[in-house]
DNA-binding GntR family transcriptional regulator (Sphaerisporangium krabiense), 232 residues
Amino acid sequence: MPRKARDAEEAASSLQGLLAMPGSSTLPAQLYQVLEEAIIEGALKPGQRLHADDIAAHYGVSRIPVRETLRALDAAGWIEIRPRYGTYVCERTSKELEDLFDVRAELEGMAAARAAARRTEQELAELSRIVESSRDAAGRGDDHELAVLDVQFYELIWATAHNSVLGATLAGMKKRARFYYSAIAPTLGRGWINVHAELLDAIRDQDAERADRISAEHVRSTVAAIRGLVEH
């Protein structure tokens, strides 16, 4: 196969995991959304080179909105545009991992403690439903649903903390945290159900200290698993 044809085939293959664009908002915003999610979930891998022409061809759009989107992704720290060398998905780094999850452990613990002190019966029932749904998903081997339910569980804890600043701060860290733990979620997600159940018990008992400890320790233990991914 001629080199040009082979390169085109490889480029097309590297974009196979991309989602379809959502139908709302401007074209650059739509492109940003799907490319950001592809980076977070690993469909576009750390260190992978991105070609504006290939992305434009994949979505049937011109290169102008693609280049605008790539500049925005570069500004947000998801990709790196290297003049004369190309555009690459940013690598995960040990420094960012440690810094990000150090702060996240403290904030997740704080949110869990506040949730234990302030939860309503309705919120408690919804947390219980998510834990039971997670057990059901694990029984069916549905790792994707497990990952979705994990996000829902912690987002509900943030809401149950009834602190808008704390919730907004954790929400702002969510995408960057997913960039790190999404790669290990399929292998560890089933083990997280037990942690969720323990945390649910602490919140049900309104034991703020225990809820804080369980949540913070869970974040720190996750770092150890991710560290191996970053270092290899």
Notes: The chain has two domains: 3-89, 94-231. The longest helix spans residues 94-118. The two ends are 33 Å apart (CA to CA). Confidence is low (pLDDT under 50) at residues 4-8.
